[in-house]
Amino acid sequence: MEQPRKTWSAGQKRQHRPRRWLPSLLVAAAALAVLGLLGWRTMKGNTTVPQSGGAKPVSDSQQADDQQIPQPQQTQGGTRWETMAAAPKTINTFAPIAPASKLYALPENGRVDLSYFNDALFVGDSISTGWDVFRTAAGLLPGAQVVAEKGASPPVNGGLWARNQKASDLYDPLAAIVAAAPKKIYIMLGTNMLVSQSETVEDKLVADYGTFIDDLKTALPGVQIYVQSVLLPTAEGTASKPGLAPDRINRVNNRLAALAFQKSCYYLDVEEYLCQRGVLNWDIDAGDGVHINTDGYRGWLEFLVTHTAYSVQNTYAAPPTHY
Predict the structure, then answer these.
(1) How far apart are CA 228 and CA 140, in angstroms?
(2) Burial level of 82, CB count in 10 A (0-12/13-18/19+)?
(3) What is the pTM of this model?
């Protein structure tokens, strides 16, 4: 049987049950308000107020980076990037780790006319004196300029050379080179120092070579410098001078090639032509296994005329193939 609905008279007050969920709702609302306030403060600390024009907010770390990066100048024509300062870092920090002379060697590139050597000068020891001794021989350079002496090594710290091995006739090789005012310098030095079997001689040779190159560049700005490899003697030559062992000379040539690269010079792997089987070619041996005969200088010159740094100023008998 259906129960009658309870009705309230106008004068009666309706009594409600207590709302138990209200305290929980207030607590949750308070918690959300606190979280919202903390989040707003965090965002305010990490961003800047956007500027007019719709600029994006920038983080503090980005602002610090921007202060270190040089900003371009603004002109009426727009931004002038060429007025910016140099970047603080560069990726061009290459340095040879395990140098190999073949990788640095100047490749064959056309064939210059012999007039190319009119303003060139040869610097070295007794091997390089042959450019002067054999200047009148057919097929060589009658006008070759030479500053070379028997027993010579890279001159550093004002070191003097003895002219024709005369102790009474000493001169400054650097001053002699500067007086000749060459545009190109061909250097071959190292054999005399390597005759010594000292463990420190290789380091000293490379260090002195570097100092000599620096002195040349200071005294003759713009001069082209060709660093030539130390020649490998024959087996008989090494037997008489154990310090000139092939593995030792190869190690030094690798370091000289890397040095030439670091000093913005050109490295010439002359042994590629004159020591084709890992030792001095038998047909150019002058008899002691270390020095070369007239044919050796002809072969040397043949190598030089085909291995030069390209320049539009050069006169080529055969045009280069790489330019």
Answers:
(1) 18
(2) exposed
(3) 0.71
